[in-house]
Amino acid sequence: MLAVLESLRRRAVAEGLPVYLVGGPVRDALLHVPVKDLDFVLEGAAPALAGELANELGGFLTVHPRFGTATVEVQGDRVDIVTARKEAYPFPGSLPEVSPSSLEADLARRDFSINAMALPLSVDEPLVIDFHGGVRDLEDQTIRTLHPGSFTDDPTRMLRAVRYQQRLGFELAESTAAELKGALAGGHVSAVTGDRWRQELQRIFEEDRAAGMLLQAIDLGVLPAIHPALSDGQHLMRLAEESGVASEPANHLAALAASLSPADGDSASRRLNLPGPWARVVRDTIAVRGILAEITPSPAGHPVQPSTVCRLLNGMDLHVITAMTRFWPDPQVVGQLEKYLAEWMQITPELTGGDLLAMGVPRGPGLGEALRELAAAKQDGLAATVEAERDLVKQIISRGS
Ligand code: ATP
Fold first, then answer.
1. 20 to 30 Å CA-CA from 209: which of 121, 160, 192, 234?
2. What is the pLDDT of residues 332-386, one digit of tens each?
3. Is the pLDDT assigned to residue 98 strictly greater than 90?
4. Predicted confidence band at 243 (pLDDT cuts at 50, 70, 90)?
5. Using CA atoms, how far apart are residues 380 and 374, in angstroms rounded to an integer?
6. Over 90: is that where the pLDDT of 76 sits?
7. Helical H runs in 174-275?
8. Could you give phi then psi for residue 232, rounded to 5 degrees?
9. Ligand 1 pocket mutation, candidates 33, 38, 160, criterion most atoms within 8 A of CB
């Protein structure tokens, strides 16, 4: 990324190129936190400049002509260079219509003041360009929209506001909180496609404080406005309390899904247009919750056989089972799930299908059943050695066919 920055700086100084570092990297540099990605804006055709850079640095170029944006990938790092543009929203929640414009207009289309600052590369000792009071808001630790219609134009900014607020430990400006409430009450959330909401949710799932962000999105009424069933934060609360939980998307999705009915799970998945693996997390979370009573020792202390646990959990998404060990409130349930993951599900017979055929088990469905019976016996500690497995197979043969 530094090579791109250096090359752009050289060109900017030599040719007076109106190119700027913008958005997140300027914010993070001012906050003295590590900068993740570099984003540049050019007042002019970005794809052409990006093409020259890619040539010079031996990088890979991707161009999106419709938006005048380009990405240069150099040794695994991606740098976005975009044509300064202004946006118009034909109707609330729609995708904007964009046209080339000035840096000022480009900054004015952004979500929050702290994300709407720029640094010119053509100057040796650049000053931050800050039309919207971003520096002041960084000092005051405030998330502030640039204009009152911001959340109506693009309701996904509601989730973005929560994300930055929690990530940085900032507060929403009073006016911004009021605008957010107004846009919620105006019903604008429903105008946004599931894909766009899901993309913002995905950004949240990747954050260290994802659980806190989702809880706040519930409290503010944003998630319930996306789908009314997304309103229960009890499981997220437990995730938020746990320190050092790897930000694994399935944890948070499962925590959101764990209190849904199957019908709500299906309709929320459809609302967010969840891709197959995510929809499966939702489905399996609800399914596992439904069998928890059967895998937990009864209050009278009757143990549940490991083979029963294996039979019921077999085929369920392992991400879901792992996630549930992190947030399910009953330690007995968590204990059973942990044993399933760490021990029981790994137990398989030493004898193979081939061995069983050689011993005289006929080919056909009976073979699979015999293998499953063998596995179950082993999981329950009833066939500890190969000899014991062979004895059991002999019993099955003499009993069965
Ligand atoms: P970071 O979280 O560090 O800001 P990010 O990947 O979330 O990174 P992006 O979503 O890539 O940030 O957005 C980059 C910049 O584009 C933001 O700083 C903001 O200025 C602008 N931006 C992104 N999404 C929107 C939006 N929905 N409305 C207005 N501006 C946006």
1. 192
2. 999 999 999 999 999 999 999 999 999 999 898 889 999 999 999 999 999 989 9
3. no
4. low
5. 10
6. no
7. 174-185, 194-205, 210-219, 222-226, 234-241, 249-257, 262-271
8. -110, 115
9. 160
Enumerate domains of the chain plus CATH numbers. Answer: 2-192 (3.30.460.10), 236-346 (no CATH), 353-400 (no CATH)
Q: How many CB atoms lie within 10 A of CB 144?
A: 25
Residue 196 CA to residue 200 CA, distance in Å, equals 7
Residue 297 and residue 309 in contact, taking contact as beta carbons nearer than 8 Å: no
Q: Tell me the residue type at 206.
A: E
Helix axes 318-327, 249-257, angle to 10 degrees: 70
Model-level pTM? 0.91
Residues 6-57: pLDDT tens digits?
999 999 999 889 999 999 999 999 999 998 889 999 999 999 999 999 999 9
Q: What region does 66 belong to: left with phi over 0, alpha with psi -120 to 50, or beta?
A: alpha
Tokens representing 325 are: 């060990």
Type of residue found at 143 = I
Q: By the 8 A CB rule, do 60 and 73 touch?
A: yes
- Token digits for 110? 């952004």
Residue closest to 240 by CA, chosen among 221, 216, 224: 216
For residue 158, report the distance from its CA to the centre of ligand 1, in Å: 12
Residue located via tokens 């069998």:
291
Residue of 1, 103, 115, 209 with the most ligand 1 atoms within 8 Å of its CB, for mutation:
115
Q: Which residues pair with 312 in a beta bridge?
A: none
Backbone angles phi, psi at 123, to 5 degrees: -115, 145
Residue 401, pLDDT > 60, answer no
Residues with CB under 6 A from ligand 1: 23-24, 36, 39, 110-111, 115, 154, 156-157, 160, 203
| Tokens 């429903």 found at | 190
Closest CA to 181 of 191, 173, 193: 173
Q: Which amino acid is at 274?
A: L
Q: Rounded to whole angstroms, what are the CA distances from 265 to 217, 273, 286, 354?
A: 18, 12, 8, 42
Residues in the chain: 401
Residue with tokens 């959330």: 189
Model confidence at 298, in pLDDT bands (50, 70, 90)?
confident
